[in-house]
Write a structure and sequence with these properties.
The complex is a heterodimer of chains A (about 260) and B (about 350). Chain A has helices spanning about 5-25, 25-50, 50-80, 85-90, 90-95, 100-130, 135-140, 145-170, 175-190, 205-210, 230-250. Chain A is globular, with a radius of gyration of 20 Å. Chain A contains 11 helices and no strands. In chain A, about 75% of the residues lie in helices and about 0% in strands. With about 260 residues, chain A is mostly helical. With about 350 residues, chain B is α/β, with parallel strands linked by helices. In chain B, about 40% of the residues lie in helices and about 25% in strands. Chain B contains 13 helices and 13 strands. Chain B has helices at about 50-55, 75-80, 100-110, 115-125, 140-155, 170-185, 200-205, 225-230, 245-255, 275-290, 305-315, 320-330, 335-350, and strands at about 10-20, 25-35, 35-40, 65-70, 85, 160-165, 190-195, 210-215, 215-220, 235-240, 260-265, 270-275, 295-300. Chain B has a 6-stranded mixed sheet, with helices on both faces. The radius of gyration of chain B is 24 Å and the shape is elongated. Classes of the chains: A mainly alpha (about 260), B alpha/beta (about 350). At the A-B interface, helix 1 and helix 5 of A face helix 2, strand 5 and helix 3 of B.
């Protein structure tokens, strides 16, 4: 017998196992195709237009393709089923029977889900940037800062959404994807378009502020301004909170083992 | 003993129950298992898997105490380090190769990657999977998957092994390989709890049995005692012939062991008897002498399952609950009064 591994060791071991599965699974391919389709249209249009229009097209691509599509799609794809798939597939026994805490299992899976989502998002973002400004190297360098800023904000949002999806996936393993879609669709997308302070329920709103994207939605002009550092803090805090409770739930619950 | 004190390979349950809503999966089980191989026998749905999952720390008991190696198992890494579990479900990580799968399990048990790989290779070799270890598990046959699951259960050298129907889908050669591996571990001081609903699977492996039915441990003891119970409990003999009521009259006139008679169908006679051998002889004799057209003679309850239900009936009448089975060992129908009571119950319950 061996001494049980510590939290970091267990989390990394779970993450390695999960990463191997993700790399060989279908989800990564689905995500890659979706991301490619999202960047293809704005990238080609920007390439064919002059410099001024190209910058606007890229901004539109980031706003619609990334903040209204990919930031939702990728966490739902990679994070909402991490516990439910193991429970429904009856493979969670293999992990839960090891001398690692259940919290470490959830944490390792969350890490991989976030890493896979970020990898696909950044690959798509850089591809769009490179193709859009391929005809103008000067513009490519000048606009790099804005693109990186948008990428940073989208990254924070994606990690937060992964935490939200993990939470709902752990709480309702048999329908984690569905509940995550409903939550993100209503709270993040719908409320994120509402007027006034209602919009503050949506982390999507704060992340777009961080990214420097022009506000859209209903009566955007009456939405109160918030300092950027507060926007970042709120998004990070909400992500940590959902992740913490998701991990805690996995640690404490029976996870439908009795009925599996 | 303190709750946090470890002990040798053991499983100790005290008035252990588990229910889901109104469904009782395990009811009031008390037992103490030490090193060696234990067969956990019971029909499908009897509570074997729930009991195993509680021992494996995957679900909490609803009431009662359960200790594995002296510690409560639910979510306890110290217990998991000593446990190997082979689940019943034929589910695995199909994207991984056999070697990757078992190595990952060893890593999760705390071994560094290089040591984990070495251990995984040894474990796979022990179950005859060396040639297939670099193939994806998704392409394995049912028997190979079963062996890979067993390899992951032993890769960290646990001293308590919980095996839920481990021989399902295996061919005779790999079955022998598995049984040899389990015997070696038991010889080294491990506790192996082996669940099955097939009596002969366990016969080749151990003489120590737990019989579980409807969530209760209805008997605990050796194979010989199980056999005696099988011989001793009232048998049903089902005869399909052209004139079942005439055959019943002839049997009642000549056969003293008959307890009750039923006619579940137009051409079927069911005989309950304490003396199955004599009853079979008497039926054969009557068939020849009375000129009956016999279609079949079967014994629907000459099985372990029938024994379970008989024991459960007995347990319900207060003659041996899980608790006393655990503490007192195998109980039998110990006196004539008990047999007579059972006969009376059968007669009152529908003898025609």
């Amino acid at each position: 017998m061996n001494a049980p591994p510590g939290l970091v060791g267990s989390t990394l071991a779970v993450a390695r196992l999960t990463a191997k599965r993700v790399l060989r699974g279908r989800k990564l391919r689905v995500a890659a195709v979706a991301a490619f389709v999202v960047v293809l249209f704005p990238a080609v249009v920007a390439l064919l237009e002059d410099d001024a229009v190209a910058a606007e097209v890229v901004e539109g691509g980031i706003k619609w393709g990334f903040f209204r599509l990919l930031v939702f799609l990728l966490p739902i794809l990679f994070a909402s089923g991490v516990i439910g798939e193991e429970v429904e597939g009856r493979t969670l026994h293999f992990l839960a029977m090891r001398p690692v805490s259940r919290g470490a299992i959830a944490l390792g899976k969350l890490l991989v889900a976030a890493a896979a989502s970020l990898a696909v998002m950044w690959a798509a973002l850089l591809l769009m940037h490179l193709v859009s400004f391929a005809a103008s190297p000067t513009q490519m360098i000048e606009q790099l800062g804005d693109t990186a800023r948008a990428g940073g904000a989208a990254s924070l949002l994606i990690v937060t959404y992964c935490g939200i999806c993990l939470f709902w996936g752990a709480l309702v393993p048999e329908a984690g994807g569905m509940v995550s879609v409903i939550w993100l669709g209503f709270v993040e997308l719908f409320l994120g378009l509402m007027p006034g302070a209602i919009r503050f329920a949506s982390m999507n709103h704060f992340a777009k502020e961080l990214a420097g994207i022009e506000r859209g939605g209903f009566f955007a002009e009456i939405v109160p301004d918030v300092e950027l550092w507060i926007c970042g803090l709120v998004v990070a805090a909400v992500g940590l909170l959902f992740s913490f409770f998701g991990v805690l739930w996995v640690q404490l619950s029976e996870l439908r083992f009795g009925k599996a | 003993m303190s709750e946090e004190t470890t002990e040798g390979a053991s499983i100790r349950a005290v008035r252990l129950s588990k229910w889901y809503g109104k469904v009782t999966a395990v009811a009031d089980v008390s037992l103490h298992l030490g090193p060696g191989i234990w067969g956990l026998l019971g029909p499908n749905g009897s509570g074997k898997t729930t009991f195993m999952r509680m021992c494996a720390g995957q679900i909490r008991p609803s009431v009662g105490k359960l200790h594995v190696g002296g510690l409560p198992p639910f979510g306890n890494p110290r217990v998991m380090a000593r446990l190997g579990y082979c689940p019943e479900a034929d589910a695995m990580y199909d994207e991984l190769t056999g070697l990757e799968f078992v190595s990952a399990m060893a890593e999760l048990s705390g071994f560094p990657p290089d040591v984990a790989t070495k251990r995984a290779k040894d474990a796979l070799e022990e179950f005859g999977l060396t040639d297939a270890m670099n193939r994806a598990v998704g392409g394995y046959s049912r028997g190979m998957r079963q062996r890979a699951k067993l390899a992951q259960a032993i890769v960290h050298e646990p001293d308590v092994l919980l095996l839920d129907e481990p021989l399902t889908g295996t061919d005779p050669a790999s079955r022998q390989q598995i049984l040899d591996a389990l015997r070696r571990r038991a010889k080294d001081g491990a506790l192996v709890l082996f669940s099955t609903h097939v009596l002969h699977e366990i016969e080749a492996l151990t003489d120590r049995l737990l019989l579980i039915a409807r969530g209760q441990v209805v008997a605990q003891g050796g194979m010989q005692e199980i056999r005696e119970l099988l011989d001793e409990h009232p048998h049903h003999v089902r005869v399909q012939c052209d004139r079942p009521r005439d055959l019943a009259s002839a049997l009642l006139a000549n056969e003293r062991g008959v307890v009750a008679l039923h006619f579940p169908a137009e051409d079927v006679l069911e005989v309950h008897t304490w003396q199955p051998d004599e009853t079979y002889d008497a039926i054969a004799k009557q068939v020849v002498e009375g000129g009956f057209q016999l279609r079949s003679i079967t014994s629907p309850d000459a099985t372990l399952e029938a024994l379970f239900y008989y024991l459960v009936e007995r347990a319900n009448r207060g003659a041996g609950t899980g608790a006393d089975a655990g503490s007192g060992g195998m109980r039998k129908l110990e006196n004539k009064a008990e047999k007579v009571a059972y006969e009376q119950q059968l007669s009152a319950g529908g003898g025609q």
